[in-house]
Amino acid sequence: MTDQTNSSLIPETTTITNGHGESSQSVDEQVPEMPGYLYAALKQLGPKEGFTEGKFAIEFDFGSSKGDGFVGQMFKATLSEGDKREVYLCKIPPLDDARREQFGSMAAFAREVMVYDRFLPTIFEYQRSKGIQSPSDGFFHTPRCYHAHCDESAQESVIIMEDLRLREFRLWNKHNIIDHDHGTMFMTHLGRLHAISLAMKRDQPKQFEQFKLPNPFDVMLKADGPFRNMILSQLQMVIDALHEQDTLERAKMEQLKEDVFDELARCGSGQLAEPYTVVGHGDCWTNNMMFRYEEGIPKEIVLLDWQVTRYVTPVQDLVYFIFCCTDADFRSKYYYEMIDIYYTSLSTMLAKLQHDAGELFPRAALDEQLRVFGRYGILMGMFLVPMMCTRNEELPDIEALAHKMSETQQLDESFFKTTDSNQEAYATRMRAVVLDCIRYGYF
């Protein structure tokens, strides 16, 4: 496609904003030139939003800060005509060719476009057909999406959604441990989301079939894939975080190093979790949710970033969140309470959908799923915990790594290395993940 971008509409400089709508840098940085297909999508959207065709301007700003995105880039688009101004967030594949190609961005975008275009509207309508109309009673907690399109062959994709910051939603600081109120809110809505899958499989099996998406990480497990060395390196960091006296834990992690690719495939197999498999969010950490507050208390949650949604055990979302976003102290106080909150919410939602949790997903089945798949907490913790312990300015240069992969077809180093500033925090938190997974009987 020929790039029709009108560069005169892009400001020469702009202040980068972080996920909280605040300046993340004190100096101005030039916004890169936007692709023509993004302009085309916004020009198509404008008249639908009350602008006069051909009469409104489009300006761009950065939509997030370093460390807030991986396989996509976020930009804020402002449409203006006279006194009328509207702001949208635009999610597009990385502008850098190597980053887009090496990290599988187009496949991820195709998946997320499907979620916004088909999956979410379908489950919203399914809930309404059961008499669930209010967000307070069901799961409607996603950003409003105005446009979602993906053309993998042309390497073009754009998702245009509302800027939740305009409705006073805020990101949780990813460097902080989640607290009880936020954890409770997440577990409540996760239970509702999973309940919809269980009920819809029974009520509308043919309709639901299209949403049985495979594990997107299977490509990383190929024998000659560029990520295998990186995975082994991350796991070695886990072993190095253990104390010398942690002999049992070290032995188990050394064994995991031998089996890690099989374990990643096993935990990602939807078939192994049947009949309790659900459509999971797949990326349940604090950067992929926003909260709205009243008097400092979270009152509403929205789940973002559906690029790795897949048909899988419900335990994946549970342990991903608990072991990546909490620490040993939180888990010692609230671990079993969080599981109870999740299951109570799931059971209540199933009842609203006219089903019995005792039949579709008994509590004993959840406990068994945790026992069988709970070690996924370590498998995800080894990637997320180091990043959550690292200051944004010390995060790796994703584009530089992508270019290195293009040249060598391998990523030999740990994706997120520890530094002098985060080594102690990482070691403490990662060691606790291992100890707790073993303590709960998941390893």
Automatic annotation (TrEMBL):
Q: Which stretches does UniProt call biased (Polar residues)?
A: 1-28
Q: Where is this region: Disordered?
A: 1-29
**Which InterPro entries does this chain map to?**
CHK_kinase-like, EcKL, Kinase-like_dom_sf
* Source taxon at top rank: Eukaryota
Q: Where is the CHK kinase-like domain?
A: 159-352
Pfam families in alphabetical order: EcKL (PF02958)
Q: Which SUPFAM superfamilies match?
A: Protein kinase-like (PK-like) (SSF56112)
**Record-linked PANTHER family:** CHK KINASE-LIKE DOMAIN-CONTAINING PROTEIN, PROTEIN KINASE-LIKE DOMAIN-CONTAINING
The name this protein carries in UniProt is CHK kinase-like domain-containing protein
Record organism = Anopheles epiroticus
